[in-house]
């Protein structure tokens, strides 16, 4: 079993949001030939959703050609792990793990990974991270901003696309150079955000960690950023 790879010609310096979009597009193309799985999902009103991301970046990703690679690495009872790398000339410039779950869209609940999915994806047992830590909200308040959900931020499942959370986070750092020095990013999606809505983003500085929460009436996501010196 080989890792799926896709060539990208990058015309600008990549943001974190751009990087996640590349990884998700690579994943979609890797799954494009899973016709049986697609039919099963359609017949049973199921949808993939990302539960967690963890990303590590090794310096700025500038304008040039890259190879994005992805592979499924692990199944547990209700989730599946998918790994990613962005490479140039055989060197890894960024790596990531996304944890996916499957949602019954009619009953709005998670389901166990069906056997048809396990049979359709050949695992490569190579993990980018030994573990993905739980989000911890502590520290001194570094930044607080409020945002209003825009219609264009809503995905096909009727809730805010997961990269919009990153867009809000980047807005808190846009007036300084920190986001360009991003080394580690992680996020756990806890509850969907719908339109219309007002979103509160709080970032807390705790040593080298910039912990953050995104909430409406409830916590919708929590995560962490670590930056290079």
UniProtKB/TrEMBL annotation:
Ranges in coiled-coil conformation: none
Domain Acyl-ACP thioesterase-like C-terminal: 143-224
Domain of life: Bacteria
Keywords: Fatty acid biosynthesis, Fatty acid metabolism, Hydrolase, Lipid biosynthesis, Lipid metabolism, Transit peptide
Listed InterPro entries: Acyl-ACP_TE_C, Acyl-ACP_thioesterase_NHD, FATA/B, HotDog_dom_sf
UniProt family annotation: Belongs to the acyl-ACP thioesterase family.
Span of domain Acyl-ACP thioesterase N-terminal hotdog: 9-117
Signal peptide span: none
Species lineage: Bacteria, Bacillati, Bacillota, Tissierellia, Tissierellales
Protein name per Swiss-Prot or TrEMBL: Acyl-ACP thioesterase
Pfam families: Acyl-ACP_TE (PF01643), Acyl-ACP_TE_C (PF20791)
KW Chaperone (keyword) present: no
Keyword Signal in record: no
Gene3D superfamilies on file: Hotdog Thioesterase (3.10.129.10)
Molecular-function annotations in GO: acyl carrier activity; fatty acyl-[ACP] hydrolase activity
């Amino acid at each position: 079993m080989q890792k799926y790879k896709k060539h990208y010609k990058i015309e600008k310096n990549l943001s974190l949001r751009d990087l996640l979009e590349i990884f998700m597009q690579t994943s979609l193309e890797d799954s494009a030939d899973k016709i049986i799985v697609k039919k099963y999902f359609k017949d049973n009103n199921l949808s993939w959703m990302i539960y967690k991301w963890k990303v590590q970046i090794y310096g700025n990703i500038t304008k040039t050609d890259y190879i994005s690679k992805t592979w499924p690495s692990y199944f547990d009872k209700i989730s599946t792990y998918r790994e990613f790398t962005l490479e140039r000339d055989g060197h890894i410039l960024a790596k990531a793990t996304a944890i996916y779950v499957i949602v019954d869209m009619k009953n709005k609940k998670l389901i166990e990974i069906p056997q048809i999915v396990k049979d359709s994806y050949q695992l490569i047992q190579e993990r980018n991270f030994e573990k993905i830590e739980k989000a911890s909200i502590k520290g001194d308040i570094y930044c607080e901003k409020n945002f209003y959900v825009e219609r264009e931020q809503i995905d096909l499942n009727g809730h805010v696309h997961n990269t919009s959370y990153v867009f809000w986070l980047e807005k808190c750092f846009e007036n300084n150079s920190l986001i360009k020095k991003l080394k580690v990013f992680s996020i756990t999606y806890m509850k969907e955000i719908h339109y219309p809505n007002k979103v509160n983003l709080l970032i807390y500085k705790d040593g080298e960690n910039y912990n953050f929460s995104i909430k409406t009436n409830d916590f919708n996501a929590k995560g962490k950023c670590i930056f290079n010196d």
